[in-house]
Amino acid sequence: DLKTNEVLGKVAVLDDPGAIVYDPLSKRLFVGCGAPKSLVPIRADLDVKTGKAETPIVLEGPPKSIVADGLGMLYVTVPEKNQIAVVDTRVMKLAVTWPVAQWPAPIGIGMDRLRSRLFVACGPRINILSAADGHEIGAVTINKPDLTRLSPPTVAFSDGQAFAPLGDSLNVIGQTADGRFEVQQMLVLEPGAGPPTLDSHS
């Protein structure tokens, strides 16, 4: 209950739950579970006292981050397999996987839904991919030489810009008039700050 913070109920999922995303088309939450390499669907309107999760969608590796396009497709980073898994929630199945072996393992992922683009964090490099077929549109490197082995744990997108935290900084990525992607601003975070989240309404 968001007003009282009371726990209304619990729903069991598989082992090692992590990322969670809501898909408005299927009206379900999807929970990434690492050990069983699965996404677990949960109806948003289930009875919180007696409701149960639905049949898991099996992936080829443990899911790390998930983003939904709002039209029935989920995009999931699978760092163990160096791939992006694409899940179709209309049929509740893995539709296709896109290999990204030429980059470090993909971790964070965000989406520009208007332009159908994915922003995928692979180490300190943010790769911009087409959400239609996975081909690379562009890339930008976050200039943090002391953190070259780390990767932004999340990537958020709003109003034409992507936001990627790395270490003690929040990198704001945008596109120039000639089509290049660049870090347009770097904000300093408090030491030890966790991955931020974005309020797209403000």
Number of helices: 0
Helix content: under 10%
Label the structural class: mainly beta
Strand order, main sheet: write it out.
1-2-3-4
Poorly predicted segments: none
- The mean pLDDT is 88
Head-to-tail CA distance between termini? 23 Å
- Quaternary structure: single chain
Tell me, what's the shape?
globular
Radius of gyration: 17 Å
Strand content: over 45%
Q: Note the main sheet.
A: 4 strands, antiparallel
Helix-strand string: EEEEEEEEEEEEEEEE
Report on this model:
The protein is mainly β and 202 residues long. 0% of the residues lie in helices and 46% in strands. It contains no helices and 16 strands. The protein has strands at residues 17-23, 28-33, 38-43, 57-58, 66-68, 73-78, 83-88, 93-99, 106-112, 117-122, 125-130, 136-141, 156-158, 161-166, 169-175, 181-188. The strands form four sheets. The chain has a four-stranded antiparallel sheet with strand order 1-2-3-4, with no helix packed on it. Strands 5-6-7-8 form a four-stranded antiparallel sheet, with no helix packed on it. A hairpin with a 4-residue loop joins β9 (106-112) and β10 (117-122). The radius of gyration is 17 Å and the shape is globular. The mean pLDDT is 88.
